[in-house]
Every structure is written in structure tokens, then in C-alpha cells.
Specification:
The chain is an alpha+beta fold. The protein has helices at about 5-15, 20-25, 30-35, 55-65, 70-90, 105, 150-165, 200-205, 230-245, 245-260, 265-270, 275-285, 300-310, 315, 335-355, 365-370, and strands at about 95-100, 115-130, 170-175, 180-185, 190-200, 215-220, 225-230. The protein contains 16 helices and seven strands. Strands 1, 2, 3, 4, 5, 6 and 7 form a seven-stranded mixed sheet that branches. β6 (about 215-220) and β7 (about 225-230) form a beta hairpin.
């Protein structure tokens, strides 16, 4: 049986930080020490905490909920502040670049109040064009005679120097092959700067809609590019989430929180499924996401059933692509191992919630969770 009180404590701390941290950030040290000793909690009460339901239901609904919008906006603002500063400096140093937000914060599927922020810094001239080019096109020869790889390399190394100088009190970690990480100092969030170039696919050349535009991320050690379609991914998730009243993102957050609450020995394996992979897994639930917003507890059973199918039927799971179609979700044996653990954990969640709702009945009955209404205050 899951210790839901501990789960609720961990969930609250992920979303709002520890009680002690919140107190020290809101008052002077002497007052903070006294407040901590008195058991004061200055963090705001969230809607899932006010539910007149068992702790397991509170946890499940809270694990599906988005992080506070103000906290998310701080993350976006901090990412933009760092990226804007870098873009200005790079432009002044002869590099034509722009910025874009990508990742979990862009999709509002992050589960931490102080979530890392992924900012693409993208070379705008020249661009990489997929052949055969669509005629007529709007491309003109670039005056920059460097190759695209060399341009991306120069942007990467210039960015390392600029960020270290611009944010001297922050820890700037340049060891990552795809990103430069900044943390501490004046920064309220950890920021990952990801140098890349545009990849204008044939589809984008026809549509001129940025959702169809790819990026090639520069890999420092390999001196090579990795092709991604982050904006296609964002659109596909947003569109399906809108179709099902926000339930897709609820499931993604639920899966991420389940992994976050695993013991370390399980988490090390389960995290082989990235946030991108988890979004793809939930995306393929499709019609199973159609439940009323007041019956979102049913998403636990819907997700459990979906993961059980994937875990037991390898031929089916091996057909599943990520939403943008760029690769298979389960493209390594490690991810299959991760799926097995995640399936067991969500099964444990479903049975533990069921036991709270039906403490006198030992045999699991999925209809109890599927038909449970939860009215938020």
C-alpha cells in the first residue's frame, strides 16, 4: 500500500519547494527560524489539498494538475531573459540568431515549480534546406562562407564565453554536448541553452508554418547535428490535449510524478523514458482520454490499461512513433525495461486508490475508479 501522506508531501515540495525554503524566502532569518519551530507553512494551499477525498485521490488529482501559472511564468521569463541577453551579444559578435522556448515548460507538462527551462538559440542565416527545394522559393545565397557546422560550432563556443561573462555569479556548465546549463546567481531557474540551426523541411517550405519547421541541434563532441521537430511535437500534443479537455497533459504529468516518487533504484531505470517519450506514450491513448473533467480519476485506470497493453504486447509497442513521427518511442531495450517498472507502479497506484475507496473489498474492480466523480472545491 502506498504511503499517500508521504507522496502528498513530496508532490507539494516539487510544486512549491520545501516549507523551510518558502519561509526563509518570505521573512528575515530570525522570524523564519521561529516560524519553522512553530510549524508554520506559508505555502499556499492548492485545490487538490482541499478535496474532501482520501489522500490517494488527492495525490492522484494533484499529480495531474499543472504547476501554478505564476511559477511557470517566472520560468518562461527567466529563460527569455537569459536567451535575449545571449542573442543580443551574439548578434553584436557577428552571429545571426534568434530564440525559441521548447520542452516541458513550453507545453506546461513540467511537474516542478522551479523547473529547468530549455531555450533554443537558433542560427537564422544561413538555414539548412531539405531537397528537393520547392520552387519558387524565397532563399538567397548567404554571404557567410562558413559551413553550417562551423557556424553552429562558433555559436556554441561564443555562447559559452558570453554566458560566463554575462552571468558571473551563476554556475555555467559547458560540459553538456547539446546544451549549456546555467544555475544560481541572479537566476531564479536553471536554464539550458541549446544552440541549433533551422532545418526547413519540404513540408515547411510548402506551408511556411513554423510548426512544420525542424531544428538541428549542435552536438559538441561529435561536431554534428541532431535533427528535431520540437514545434511539431508541441502542436501535436496541444491539439490532442485540446480535443480531450486537457486530459492528455494530465496523464503526462501523472506519469512524470509517478517516476519522480519512485525509489532511486527504480527511478534510475524508469528515467530511460524521457519526458518526450512519456508524452508519446500518453498521446497514443487517444480515445481513452475522453473522460469528463470531474471524472479524471478514471485516467489512472485508462493509463494503467494502456501501459499494460504496451508492456505485454511488444509487436504493438514497437509500432508506436513519437507524435512528430521522427522516431519510434521504444527505440532501445532500456525503454522496455523502464516501461515494465512504470506499468507496475501505476498498477500499484490504481490498486492503492481502489483500496482507499473500497477498504472492505480485496479484489480490484476497475469500474470503481472509472466511475468515481471528484468535484474540486
Amino acid at each position: 500500500m502506498i504511503d499517500f501522506q508521504q507522496r502528498l508531501k513530496s508532490l507539494k515540495e516539487r510544486r512549491q519547494g520545501s516549507r523551510e525554503r518558502a519561509i526563509y524566502e518570505s521573512m528575515d532569518s530570525m522570524s523564519a527560524n521561529n516560524a519553522i519551530l512553530r510549524g508554520v507553512d506559508v505555502r499556499k494551499s492548492e485545490s487538490f489539498e482541499k478535496l474532501k477525498e482520501p489522500a490517494g485521490v488527492q495525490y492522484s488529482i494533484g499529480a495531474m494538475a499543472p504547476v501554478d501559472a505564476k511559477s511557470t511564468q517566472v520560468s518562461i521569463n527567466e529563460g527569455s531573459r537569459v536567451a535575449d541577453s545571449l542573442v543580443r551579444s551574439l548578434n553584436n559578435n557577428g552571429e545571426s540568431v534568434t530564440k525559441r522556448l521548447q520542452g516541458s515548460v513550453a507545453l506546461d507538462i513540467h511537474i516542478k515549480g522551479h523547473s529547468d527551462v530549455d531555450m533554443l538559440v537558433i542560427v537564422t542565416n544561413p538555414v539548412n534546406v531539405e531537397f528537393p527545394e520547392i520552387e519558387p522559393n524565397n532563399y538567397s545565397p548567404s554571404e557567410d562562407k562558413r559551413g553550417l557546422l562551423d557556424i553552429a560550432k562558433d555559436v556554441r563556443y561564443k555562447s559559452e564565453g558570453i554566458l560566463s561573462n554575462s552571468f558571473p555569479k551563476a554556475e555555467v556548465d559547458c560540459s553538456g554536448n547539446k546544451s549549456i546549463a546555467l544555475e544560481g546567481g541572479s537566476l531564479q531557474r536553471k536554464i539550458d541553452i541549446v544552440p541549433a540551426i533551422w532545418f526547413d523541411s519540404i513540408k515547411y517550405q510548402r506551408s511556411r508554418v513554423e510548426n512544420d519547421r525542424g531544428v538541428k541541434v549542435y552536438h559538441k563532441a561529435d561536431h554534428d547535428f541532431i535533427l528535431n521537430y520540437p514545434f511539431t511535437h508541441i502542436k501535436m500534443i496541444n491539439d490532442r490535449d485540446g480535443l480531450y479537455s486537457g486530459n492528455l497533459k494530465c496523464v503526462i504529468r501523472l506519469l512524470k510524478n509517478i517516476i519522480a516518487d519512485m525509489p532511486d533504484y527504480k527511478k534510475r531505470v524508469a528515467k530511460k523514458l524521457s519526458s518526450y517519450d512519456l508524452a508519446g506514450i500518453a498521446y497514443h491513448m487517444d480515445h481513452d482520454l475522453r473522460v469528463p473533467t470531474y471524472m479524471r480519476l478514471a485516467l489512472i485506470e485508462k493509463a494503467r490499461s494502456h501501459l499494460s497493453l504496451l508492456n505485454s504486447f511488444k509487436p504493438y509497442r514497437d509500432t508506436l512513433d513519437v507524435p512528430d513521427g521522427s522516431r519510434k518511442i521504444f527505440n532501445s531495450d532500456e525503454k522496455s525495461d523502464a516501461l515494465e517498472i512504470l506499468t507496475k507502479e501505476i498498477t500499484d497506484l490504481a490498486t492503492s486508490v481502489y483500496k482507499e475507496l473500497q477498504p472492505l473489498v480485496s479484489t480490484y474492480d476497475s469500474s470503481v475508479i472509472l466511475n468515481k466523480s471528484v468535484l474540486e472545491p
